[in-house]
């Protein structure tokens, strides 16, 4: 999911506390992402929709990248954003589209 930024994520987690890295890798990614029912692409699109509804810009940025890293197209992400934006304030919807434009253009 994190692609080329995985190493940076691991360093950041270790800096917070040594116990966080295995917790995130084993529990959050290992156990949750490997559950049956949805493939990685669909699971990440659902995660993107849920995070877009929250005020969590760092996580949103990471999951915008993650959708591309798990096989979604730019059009898939456009569709998810179009679905959730109707439930956001105009300001939050605009920030979401701006962040997506940045990720999309820079191919992060």
The average pLDDT score comes to 86
Largest sheet: none
Number of discrete helical segments: 6
**Total beta strand runs:** 0
Distance N to C terminus: 12 Å
Topology as H/E string? Answer: HHHHHH
Poorly predicted regions are none
Radius of gyration: 14 Å
Protein architecture, described:
- Helices cover 74% and strands 0% of the residues.
- The protein has helices at 6-16, 20-33, 40-52, 57-69, 74-85, 90-106.
- Helix 3 packs antiparallel against helix 4.
- The longest helix is centred in the C-terminal third of the chain and has 17 residues, at 90-106.
- The radius of gyration is 14 Å and the shape is globular.
- The mean pLDDT is 86.
What topology emerges from the helices and strands here?
Elements: H1 6-16, H2 20-33, H3 40-52, H4 57-69, H5 74-85, H6 90-106
Helix pairs in contact: 3-4, 3-5, 4-6, 5-6
Please describe the structure with a list of short key phrases separated by commas or semicolons.
single chain, 108 residues, mainly alpha, 0% strand, globular
Produce a short descriptive summary.
The chain is built from six helices and no strands. It has 108 residues and is mainly alpha-helical.
